[in-house]
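Usage example:
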Amino acid sequence: QSALTQPPSASGSPGQSVTISCTGTSSDVGGYNYVSWYQQHPGKAPKLMIYEVSKRPSGVPDRFSGSKSGNTASLTVSGLQAEDEADYCCSSYARSNNLVFGGGTKLTVL
Amino acid sequence: QVQLVQSGAEVKKPGASVKVSCKASGYIFTSYAMHWVRQAPGQRLEWMGWINAGNGYTKYSQKFQGRVTITRDTPATTAYMELSSLRSEDTAVYYCARGFRVGAISAVGYWGQGTLVTVSS
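Running the assembly step on the lines above writes:
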């Protein structure tokens, strides 16, 4: 399985919104509503931010939202805050009980 | 609370094998999938495989098929990942990570602290 495609970097100023894309194929992102997003700060384990395309686990601020269109999923962070600066990685269920991750996007808060 | 505690850092020579353990607590071990994910220095997360802790079913990434074995010991609520024929490119932090919801494998909700495996001659 090939990795999902994400832009290597994204940035925004405090208070702004930024959207990160995650592109796969009809065998993963496009075929199932099982896209997740993870936030990872340097030296830390990832944290689940979004699951099943647009659902937020308890405790995740509603500034984080997810969506999907065709083979591309998106994570939007609204009202950017300094602590949002981190790496963001998507994942998707893929055919035959596989999981695939994206390449990761480094989000910089300017 | 859910806790996943992994074994300590390992240094291995090329060609050797490594076995990493993941002791789970705070939930019903057999009700959730356990994934193994690795991250080489400065690189992306890479999914290796998962095990149904209830019935022992496993699924491995094609990339690691034949080199990785994931097992579990249900009385000990511990999962294991063994990687063989190690090469320098296998130097990475290895994470165990529990499925977010009962019976689901598509999202990972809880992560271990990671185990650094260094492969060097």
